[in-house]
Specification:
alpha/beta
Length: 221
């Protein structure tokens, strides 16, 4: 049977740029193969599942996959990491590929998104990933993490109460932010004090193959 939407989907796929050259040399052969397979899954399923819009697919590599790698240098050398509001898997799936030595919990409240994350876990053979259908606040008191990551979840004054109770002493919240990062920190002074943030800093992080981005790190006492 002919799929009436196939032509439209194929037209969208044609517009998606190829991954940058040299990825295997930069990331290693196996991680690069997994990143490319992840991109293929997103190209095939991302729009249909409502995870990535058609315009975003044209910037899949630089704006989403490679952008997610910015967090990599801030992760601990060992321990457990939670990606809150994992959605399509940015940055959680990308980081799990690059850091097989860490345990990642991909925390997402929506069932269709956790279904997607479980598919990624299986297809990419990510033995270090656990998909959790829950809100961040549901996990408080059940477990703690060495680090928590978040991308496009909420402003810091809302994100801090959701995530800091999940972070162990000495651990960090690593939030991907934009031009308003310093302003968000200023607006969250009350929350910073209440949830015992030791210090906060903003980093402009260069990214291989893409534009630089900004990471806010909040270290917990």
């Amino acid at each position: 049977m002919t799929d009436p939407d196939r032509g439209e989907r194929d037209a969208t796929l044609v517009a998606i740029p190829e991954p940058p050259a040299g990825g295997a040399e930069h990331f290693g052969e196996l991680p690069w193969q997994q990143l490319r397979k992840y991109a293929q899954l997103l190209m095939q399923e991302g729009e249909l599942r409502g995870l990535v819009g058609p315009r975003e697919l044209t910037r899949l590599w630089d704006r989403h996959i490679l952008n997610s790698t910015a967090v990599s240098g801030f992760l601990p050398t060992a321990g457990k990491v939670a990606d809150i509001g994992s959605g399509a898997g940015f940055p959680g799936v990308v980081l799990a590929i690059l850091h097989p030595e860490l345990e990642f919990w991909l925390v997402e409240a929506m069932e269709r998104r956790t279904d997607w994350l479980e598919l990624c876990q299986q297809e990419l053979q990510l033995s270090n990933v656990r998909v959790v259908r829950a809100r961040a606040e549901d996990l408080v008191g059940e477990t703690t993490f060495t680090a928590v990551t978040a991308r496009a979840v909420a402003a810091l004054k809302k994100l801090i109460p959701l995530t800091l109770p999940l972070i162990e002493s000495g651990g960090s919240l690593l939030a991907m932010k934009g031009a308003r990062a310093e302003q968000e920190i200023s607006e969250a002074v009350t929350q910073l004090r209440k949830f015992k943030v030791d210090w906060a800093d903003v980093y402009d992080v260069p990214i291989w193959g893409a534009e630089s981005t900004r990471i806010v790190e909040l270290r917990k006492l």
